[in-house]
Amino acid sequence: MNFKGVGWLLVLLLAALVSFLAATMAWIAGFGWVLGLLCLVWGVFLLAEFRRWVPLRDVAWAANVGFGISVIRWFDLPAEGASGLARLALLGAGVLCLIFFALICPGLLAWGAGRLRPPPEPGLPVEKPASPEALRRWGPKD
After folding, report:
1. In angstroms, rounded to a whole number, what is the distance separating the alpha carbons of residues 12 and 10?
2. Per residue in 7-45, pLDDT tens?
3. Three-class SS string for 73-138?
């Protein structure tokens, strides 16, 4: 892995950390702040996906994962006195939450942005495919 790859990985980790801290502060401030931050993160992801800005989309995805980790932290109840089944249920809920924020939600947002995106502009001219008649006339030496 070259320096550019490591640097990009550090940028994504920093975006996830900043999003986690902002979401944690939003949970303390109130549910309205949480919804506002979530709308901001999803809006940036939608904009980046719609405009095909891959680096911004990746940063928004990392911020979405950081937000998901803050959600896991929010519903993480003290499990010192809980039985093994309750701990397992909390672990399963955390895994489901992380799967939602890392895979399902970005996939749904990308699907929605793809349906709203206009068709691509015509680029370079493309050769028309051969007609069945031309394919029949061509020999193996063509």
Report:
1. 5
2. 899 999 999 999 999 999 999 999 999 999 999 999 999
3. HHCCCCCCCCCHHHHHHHHHHHHHHHHHHHHHHHHHHHHHHHHHCCCCCCCCCCCCCCCHHHHHHC
For the chain, helix (H) and strand (E) counts, in that order, are 6, 0
∠ CA 77-82-87, nearest 5°, is 70
Residue 111 pLDDT > 90: yes
The answer to whether 67 and 25 are in contact (CB under 8 A) is no
pLDDT in tens, 87-109: 788 888 889 999 999 999 999 99
Question: By the 8 A CB rule, do 76 and 67 touch?
Answer: no
User: What is the C-alpha to C-alpha distance for residues 121 and 142, in angstroms, rounded to an integer?
Assistant: 33
Query: What's the whole-model pTM score?
Result: 0.77
Region class of 30: left (phi > 0), else alpha (psi between -120 and 50), else beta: left
